[in-house]
Amino acid sequence: MKIKSLIFSPAEGGQIVAGQTTVKGVAFNDGGAAIERVEVSTDGNIWQAAQLQKPSGPFAWSRWTAEVELPAGEHKLQCRAFDTNGKTQPPDGQVHWNPAGYAWNGIHQVSVRTS
């Protein structure tokens, strides 16, 4: 299993109030190296570190949260994980395959609208 992270909240297509927003998700891999950090972006250019919770074991999800400021408008929230071996998620997944499949590990993104 390649390294992967996912945004669980807010949900894809969500309508949320502008301002401070908590983004939540998980990161995981094959258990061969610990998830070292997760980063979140609201614009695809600037990345900020998320707060990472210690998982219960090498194969467990690493839950994370990040506080972001979202002005009114449309946004694409993105997340990417890094492990202690230096592996991370590529922008395009490096696999031309179904994004819902297990082998796909591109940077996950969620579109939301704020008002």
Question: Could you please describe the fold and organization of this structure?
Answer:
- The protein has strands spanning 4-9, 14-16, 19-28, 35-41, 47-49, 51-52, 62-70, 73-83, 108-114.
- It is an all-beta fold.
- It has a single domain, classed as Immunoglobulin-like.
- A hairpin with a 5-residue loop joins β4 and β5 (47-49).
Helical element count? 0
Distance between the termini: 38 Å
Q: What is the fold-level CATH name, i.e. the topology? A: Immunoglobulin-like
Query: How much is the radius of gyration in Å?
Result: 14 Å
Main sheet: strands, sense, barrel = 5 strands, mixed
Key attributes of the depicted protein:
115 residues; mainly beta; Immunoglobulin-like; 5-stranded mixed beta sheet; 0% helix
What's this, in brief?
Helix content is 0%, strand content 50%.
Write the layout of secondary structure elements.
Elements: E1 4-9, E2 14-16, E3 19-28, E4 35-41, E5 47-49, E6 51-52, E7 62-70, E8 73-83, E9 108-114
Parallel strand pairs: 2-9
Antiparallel strand pairs: 1-3, 3-7, 4-5, 4-8, 6-7, 8-9
